[in-house]
Amino acid sequence: MGRPEPPPARPQRRRITTAGAVFTILLLALLCYTRYSEKLLSVVPTIMTQDTQPQFHASLTKPTLLASLPPSALPKPHGGPKSPRLIIIGDVHGQLSALDALLAKVGYSGARGDVVIFTGDMVNKGPDSGGVVDRAVEMGAYSVRGNHEDRVLRAWDEMQAKGSMDTDSETETETDVAEEAEGDVETEKKKHKHKHKHHKGKKEARKTAKSLTSAQRSWLAARPVILRVGAVSPYYGDVVVVHGGLVPGIPLEKQDPQVVMNIRTLITPSSSTSFSPESLVSDNDSLDSSADSFSHSHLKPSEGREGHPWSKVWNALEKEKQKKNSKKGGRHGTPEPPTTVVYGHDAKTGLSVRRYAFGIDSNCARGGELTALVFEPTSASAAMSNPSDTNTNINTNKDEDEDDSELAAARHGIKHRLVSVSCRAQRIGGRHV
Ligand SMILES: [Mn+2]
Questions:
Q1: Strand 339-343 relative to strand 357-359: parallel, antiparallel, unpaired?
Q2: How far is ligand 1, taken at its centre, from the CA of residue 148, in Å?
Q3: Which bin fits 197, alpha (ψ -120 to 50), beta or left (φ > 0)?
Q4: pTM for this entry
């Protein structure tokens, strides 16, 4: 009786099974690793690009809140006339010919290394939103998201979600923040007008969204809500570009994107009484307590235009901060630099030049002007020269202590200049001035 011998093929089969198992485990491990590293990789660029021009990871409806200009893009103090400038341009609203006229008047030169930043609202209202975006891309320009870009991108997102890009369905489900929101005491007539405006706005946004190429939409979607320009000079401090404005006392990282894109005024604790931000500066006794109460939680963005311009409050608080800094002297180390905000969005007010806030929407959309705020290096000897104002036809509401500002700025090697072109002349098709 012989025990049957094990089939000869078996060990081989076992070997094959073992090899198969090992292979499967390796394959699974590799798959897990790949998936994990993909996740890792998707996180890394987000962090890395946070401090540079954001890439296309930003979504249509959830914009990147904050991005920074690379330090190399800042103008060099005392660099002289051949040195690159920083050119910040107000709300273009599709007026490509006005933009080109302004670039010509400013003497924009890509070869020199000029850097262009838009304050948002490059699109809608005017005839060529896509052309304006193309020009920005050509120049390697920077921009922030304005309420109109936001509206257009949201409209596109909504159309995609519905899958009905051809139908101009007039349903109103969106709760986007309109430029003029409802107040408590709004009459029915006003409500109706507001609704009509909102409706018109959505229709326009859909039209613009459809007119843009996917590359143009992607570029717009990747723009941050707040662009940190950086330390331009000790005179200007840290320059920040936004479309609407900022709420004082809230760090940039904690600002509400919808507020930043839409704000015009703030309701302050004493809005109902005769509040004056300047009183903070002049009234020494109540100075500290009142300044503190302003910088914390008492300032609320208004939905309409009631209260005080946010820029006026911002300016008063920055002045106050600098005054405190100079009182401390050198004892407490390096004083905190001021923050100067450059913004658009307020065409109704027009150009508004304050020490620490520049409003440069001069209403190009309605036949006003298109304005650029140019930061340019002075020559080594420029502190001696007398910088001249190139635009005499612009009505600016300057602060009372602005007279020496240009000389004071020039001492630190960078000065600013406002340059405007008429948007009415562009529309008629006349020659660029
Ligand atoms: Mn706007």
A1: parallel
A2: 6
A3: alpha
A4: 0.74
How far, in Å, from the CA of 425 to the mean position of ligand 1? 22
Q: Using the mean position of ligand 1's atoms as its centre, give its distance from the Cα of residue 344 in Å.
A: 7
CA distance 241 to 364: 19
Centroid of ligand 1 to alpha carbon of 69 (angstroms): 22
Within 10 angstroms of residue 96's Cβ, the number of other Cβ atoms is: 20
| Ion ligand 1 nearby residues (CB, 5 A) | 121, 146-147, 345
Query: Which DSSP string do the residues of 126-147 spell out, in sequence order?
Result: SS-HHHHHHHHHHTT-EE---H
Calculate how far, in angstroms, residue 321's C-alpha sits from the geometric centre of ligand 1.
29
Beta bridge partners of 339: 238
Domains of the chain (ranges, CATH numbers): 64-428 (3.60.21.10)
Give the Cα separation of 243 and 65 in Å (integer). Answer: 12
Q: What is the DSSP string of 131-188?
A: HHHHHHHHTT-EE---HHHHHHHHHHHHHHHHT-SS---------PPPSSPPPTT--H
pLDDT in tens, the chain (433 residues): 445 455 544 555 566 566 666 555 555 554 444 444 433 444 333 333 333 444 444 589 999 999 999 999 999 999 988 999 999 999 999 999 999 999 999 999 999 999 999 999 999 999 999 999 999 999 999 999 999 999 999 999 999 988 854 544 444 444 444 444 444 455 677 778 888 888 899 999 999 999 999 999 999 999 999 999 999 999 999 999 999 999 999 999 999 999 999 999 999 776 544 445 544 444 333 333 344 445 456 789 998 888 999 999 999 999 999 988 887 655 556 678 999 999 999 999 999 999 999 999 999 999 999 999 999 999 866 444 444 444 433 444 444 455 567 788 888 999 999 999 999 855 444 444 3
